[in-house]
Structure formats: C-alpha cells, structure tokens
C-alpha cells in the first residue's frame, strides 16, 4: 500500500532498524524494488531524483510507482530525492508524492532553514513528510581534500537548530559518505552520528551508502540511521548482468529478454540490502 515516508520511518526509528530508499527512473527498476520488498516482506521507499524526473517524465514515473505501490502488500512511499528546485518539489506534491526532500544544503544555513520551513508547511498541509540536509554529502568525483570533506560534515548543534526551526520529519546527515563509487574505503564518523541522534531523536538518513562495507552499515543502523539511500549498487548490478547477457548471446534483441534478467539482478541486490538494513520482515 502507498503510505507517507514518515509512516514508514517513525516505526523504523522506534524499533531501531533502517529502510532502504532505492532510486528508480523506469519500469524495470521499479519492478525490482517492489518485488524485492514483497519477497522479503520489507517496507520500502522508492525515490526519484530530479534527473530521474527529467528522464522518465514526472507524471509517468509517478503513475508507474503509485500503481505498483497501491497494489503492493507491503508499505511503499514515493519520495523525491535531492529536490533542489522549489518548483520541482511543488510539482511532485501536485503529482502524488508521499515524501519529498528539499535539499537546500548548498545555501547558507539561514536560507536553508527558510526554504525548508516553507516546504514543510506546504507538504505537511498536504499530508506529505519532508527530508532535508545539513552538511554537504558530496560525490566521490568531487576533488575535495579529506579535511574539506571533514569540514562539510554535519555539525550537531546546527542540526538541532535546523530540525527545530524547520519542523522536518527526517534529516540527511554528512558523516563521511559520498555519492557514486568509492575509490578508497569511506570512513564514517560514528561519534558524530551518535551525538546527532541523541540530540535530535528523529529518523536520520544516510546518503551515499552504495559501497559502504556491511559492518559500517550495521553500526550506522545501530546508532540511529533509519533511511539508507542506494542507487550506484543497483546501476552496477544492472550493467554487470547486461554485459553478461550480451557476451553470452550477441544475437539477442528482445528488450524483455534483456531487461527482464537485468531486473532480476537488481532485485537480488536490493533484497540483500533490505536484509542487511533490518527491514526484512518488518512490513
Ligand atoms: O545517496 C544516494 C545514493 O548514493 P550512492 O551513489 O552511494 O548509491 N542518492 O541520493 C541517490 C542519488 C541519485 C542521483 O541521481 P541522478 O544521477 O539522476 O542525479
Ligand atoms: Ca557511494
Ligand atoms: Na533523499
Ligand atoms: Zn543522496
């Protein structure tokens, strides 16, 4: 069934597990996510980035996700990932999203607070929950030095002020992860996570979780992470299976014979994440 993000994350926060938030931009990825959730009896958040909206069309990807979510036997939320443009966030609210991220983390704190507070008031008026970001979760491609990444990490005091003044439902924090594939091993600042959780006591979001070792993920969940964003690992599972298929049979030409197996490969990766995060069996 289609539910709001906070309905899923409030339970995860209370019971101490995390829910996967997986990016989609088409039919097969959406199928992989929903089938994985059904097979592991996990609640799940299906999210679309601004790039995904452009690729699929906002009404089209909303229809695909909402149709499958409403038929699902597990709780499913439709989330806007990294909504950086206020009007895009509004368009998603008009198109049936049940959770939105207003990502104004690039703005100075006071401006981030202002725009996020406005989104919270509008979204809550529509029964939709809101994620925001404090600190900068960059990409592994960003050529920033280690201590620049350190400086970009979320400051607990700022996070408390931000959460209080905006009324957000869940907060994305920067504790050492990055979007995209990692070159070396990411080092997560668990003390910082512990402190932020104790001070805010709301569901927390880990971005850039593809490529983070399983032990680190488990530790982050035990310290209060409740939503974990995964995209790169799904893309790589898709591409691996695609290459295998073409190598095995260079004559295959039916998209269903190519995309179907790729869907299954993505589904397997997603199921493992749901088990690792502790969401399996929680639906
Ligand atoms: O935190 C994450 C996932 O990070 P990951 O790369 O570790 O999976 N995300 O928020 C997913 C980011 C998706 C970006 O999509 P576009 O390419 O359309 O901009
Ligand atoms: Ca990553
Ligand atoms: Na997000
Ligand atoms: Zn992210």
From TrEMBL:
<feature type="binding site">
    <location>
        <position position="180"/>
    </location>
    <ligand>
        <name>dihydroxyacetone phosphate</name>
    </ligand>
</feature>
<dbReference type="InterPro" id="IPR000771">
    <property type="entry name" value="FBA_II"/>
</dbReference>
<feature type="binding site">
    <location>
        <position position="103"/>
    </location>
    <ligand>
        <name>Zn(2+) 2</name>
    </ligand>
</feature>
<feature type="binding site">
    <location>
        <position position="133"/>
    </location>
    <ligand>
        <name>Zn(2+) 2</name>
    </ligand>
</feature>
<keyword id="KW-0479">Metal-binding</keyword>
<dbReference type="GO" id="GO:0006096">
    <property type="term" value="P:glycolytic process"/>
</dbReference>
<feature type="binding site">
    <location>
        <position position="207"/>
    </location>
    <ligand>
        <name>Zn(2+) 1</name>
    </ligand>
</feature>
<feature type="binding site">
    <location>
        <position position="179"/>
    </location>
    <ligand>
        <name>Zn(2+) 1</name>
    </ligand>
</feature>
<feature type="binding site">
    <location>
        <position position="82"/>
    </location>
    <ligand>
        <name>Zn(2+) 1</name>
    </ligand>
</feature>
<keyword id="KW-0862">Zinc</keyword>
<dbReference type="InterPro" id="IPR050246">
    <property type="entry name" value="Class_II_FBP_aldolase"/>
</dbReference>
<protein>
    <submittedName>
        <fullName>Fructose-1,6-bisphosphate aldolase, class II</fullName>
        <ecNumber>4.1.2.40</ecNumber>
    </submittedName>
</protein>
<keyword id="KW-0456">Lyase</keyword>
<dbReference type="GO" id="GO:0008270">
    <property type="term" value="F:zinc ion binding"/>
</dbReference>
<dbReference type="InterPro" id="IPR011289">
    <property type="entry name" value="Fruc_bis_ald_class-2"/>
</dbReference>
<feature type="binding site">
    <location>
        <begin position="229"/>
        <end position="232"/>
    </location>
    <ligand>
        <name>dihydroxyacetone phosphate</name>
    </ligand>
</feature>
<dbReference type="GO" id="GO:0004332">
    <property type="term" value="F:fructose-bisphosphate aldolase activity"/>
</dbReference>
<dbReference type="GO" id="GO:0030388">
    <property type="term" value="P:fructose 1,6-bisphosphate metabolic process"/>
</dbReference>
<feature type="active site" description="Proton donor">
    <location>
        <position position="81"/>
    </location>
</feature>
<dbReference type="InterPro" id="IPR013785">
    <property type="entry name" value="Aldolase_TIM"/>
</dbReference>
<dbReference type="GO" id="GO:0009025">
    <property type="term" value="F:tagatose-bisphosphate aldolase activity"/>
</dbReference>
<feature type="binding site">
    <location>
        <begin position="208"/>
        <end position="210"/>
    </location>
    <ligand>
        <name>dihydroxyacetone phosphate</name>
    </ligand>
</feature>
<dbReference type="Pfam" id="PF01116">
    <property type="entry name" value="F_bP_aldolase"/>
</dbReference>
């Amino acid at each position: 069934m289609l539910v709001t993000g906070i309905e899923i994350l409030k339970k995860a926060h209370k019971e101490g597990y995390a829910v996967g938030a997986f990016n989609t931009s088409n039919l097969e990825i959406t199928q992989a996510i929903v089938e994985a959730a059904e097979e592991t009896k996990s609640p799940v958040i299906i999210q679309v980035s601004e790039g995904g909206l452009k690729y699929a069309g906002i009404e089209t990807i909303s229809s695909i996700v909402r149709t499958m979510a409403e038929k699902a036997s597990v709780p499913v939320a439709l989330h806007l990932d990294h909504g950086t443009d206020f009007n895009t966030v509004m368009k998603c609210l008009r198109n049936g999203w049940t959770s939105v991220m207003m990502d104004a983390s690039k703005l100075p704190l006071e401006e981030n607070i202002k725009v996020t507070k406005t989104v919270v008031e509008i979204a809550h008026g529509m029964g939709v929950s809101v994620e925001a970001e404090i600190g900068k979760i960059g990409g592994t491609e960003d050529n920033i030095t280690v201590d620049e990444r350190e400086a970009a990490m979320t400051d607990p005091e700022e996070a408390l002020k931000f959460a209080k003044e905006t009324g957000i439902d869940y907060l994305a924090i920067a504790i050492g992860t990055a979007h995209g594939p990692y070159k070396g091993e990411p080092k997560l600042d668990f003390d910082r996570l512990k402190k932020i959780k104790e001070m805010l006591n709301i569901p927390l979001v880990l971005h850039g979780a593809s490529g983070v070792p399983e032990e680190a993920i488990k530790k982050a969940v035990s310290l209060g992470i409740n939503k974990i964003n995964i995209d790169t690992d799904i893309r790589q599972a898709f591409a691996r299976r695609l290459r295998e298929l073409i190598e095995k049979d260079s004559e295959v030409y039916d998209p269903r014979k190519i995309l179907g197996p790729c869907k299954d490969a993505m589904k397997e990766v997603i199921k493992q994440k749901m088990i690792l995060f502790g969401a399996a069996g929680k639906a």
